[in-house]
Amino acid sequence: MIQREDRYDIVMPARIRWEKQWCAASVRNISRRGAMLRTVKPPPPGTYVDLELPYGIVTARSMWASGQSCGLRLQDQLDVAAILKSRGRRGGLVRPAPVAADPKPRTSRADLRAEAERSRRRSASMQFAIVLAVGGCVAVSVAWEVYKTLSAPLAAIGKHM
Question: What is the pTM of this model?
Answer without folding.
Answer: 0.52
